[in-house]
Amino acid sequence: MTETALFERIALIGIGLIGSSLARVIRAKGLARATAAYSRTAATRRRAAELGLVDQVIDDPAKAVAGADLVVIGVPVGASGEVAAAIAPGLAPGAIVTDVGSVKGAVIEAVRAALPEGVAFVPGHPIAGTEHSGPDAGFAELFEGRWCVLTPTADTDRRAVERVAALWRAAGSTVDLMSAEHHDTVLAITSHIPHLIAYNIVSTVADLEDRTKLEVIKYAAGGFRDFTRIAASDPVMWRDVFLNNRDAVLEMLATFNEDLARLQRAIRRNEGEVLEKIFTETRAIRRGVIEARQD
Amino acid sequence: MTETALFERIALIGIGLIGSSLARVIRAKGLARATAAYSRTAATRRRAAELGLVDQVIDDPAKAVAGADLVVIGVPVGASGEVAAAIAPGLAPGAIVTDVGSVKGAVIEAVRAALPEGVAFVPGHPIAGTEHSGPDAGFAELFEGRWCVLTPTADTDRRAVERVAALWRAAGSTVDLMSAEHHDTVLAITSHIPHLIAYNIVSTVADLEDRTKLEVIKYAAGGFRDFTRIAASDPVMWRDVFLNNRDAVLEMLATFNEDLARLQRAIRRNEGEVLEKIFTETRAIRRGVIEARQD
After folding, report:
1. Which of A157, B29, B146, B225 gives 20 to 30 Å between its CA and that of A2?
2. Is the pLDDT of residue A203 over 50?
């Protein structure tokens, strides 16, 4: 075990954008003595092996986690419970299981029900990503300068939390702890609603007649292109996010709709001063994002 | 006049992001023998002079256009008519006036009413920009690889259209001709609605209580940050866009709202297959944008 190794053996269950980025960090920084990965999809397993992301690519989830002191679940959140049940028979006593899902409440419920006694579950969410998916899309710098939120419950082993936090810090992230409920509310605003809105506006264009659609694509540099990038994110991952964070998403969507009705009314009534005031206030938020170095 | 000069004297009325970028192109490529600029704001005039963007910065719009064979109006679209009236007394017979506004129907109406006989108005719109404003924000490469739409009417002088088109081609853009009405419909989708939605979601956050707002800023990398960038655009420019392209914006907003209601219903009813289908279709639009090199 090198000096920097934090774990004996890390098993990655799911080796997409996040899993493969983490694999690259672990390899580059020597954070584990050994690594293994499992993916449900044969093509993904093949590609992960070709890329040499881990020591072993294994086609059975329970075997993939054998001997691992850390297991990282990186699958669409709706599959978390099923995946936890599939790895459960192979988990070593004392192993730590963590995840990277964008929803925490529903994942905690599903995963904890499936894991055996003596295994610690540390729910986690690195706030990082791109619109690309799959093992080719990952890169070791993805987590640098970003936040990673861990949402332990009252009975989560504190040493396990600290060990998972150390992994994310080694990947370049700053770790924050909060409740799963609070995480899900904040992420509904910062991530889930923005994705829903982007999917919606791009979908509106997808339904236009062909000639207009081609023109919209042609002139996408006017603003639309940024939405197409966000709306190119993994469909299954995002389907699961919305279904598993339904209450917070629908609540925030109601506020979004009220606010949009206010803008719509101001446009219809020719109320320039209302529009200018709102458009000026939003600049302060942008300054905040730049100052927080999250731009 | 150098070999590449297309005009004797170009006067820029408004020297913000677009005007100052064009000034930099004109200077870098020697597209005019002489240049002048006017801005309503003293601080902007001072800054344009400090940056050496043009040969002369002039504090009177009518004097600024004296002797110019091309005048480029680059102001918020709501000010177009007023600015046209202010330059009218100084315009040389045979001068060409063009603009860069994001709305064409309302601008044509306002500008043509104010211009004297013997002056050609070529309505234009370079589909390029950033979220920054003012003379410091411009750069000579802004128009490279982008589209510039010109929307001449039946009685617009064709030689004048060709001379304005030549300027934009020299700046690196490809020129497209279409009707003002069609432009305003397409831009409502590609640019105006995306900006309205971005302003709206950032405004929703601006209204949150302080603690949550700070957290949203902190975790902006989840998707929200892209919206804050778009919503940092010039407030007066965008106020004017919405008020001057009201019908097309409200019509497209109605479609957006219908589509959003469909997503909302699918989430509420747990209809995963509906969400996945929509989120998959949007990827094709992204591929189109990338293939069109407008990403």
Report:
1. A157
2. yes
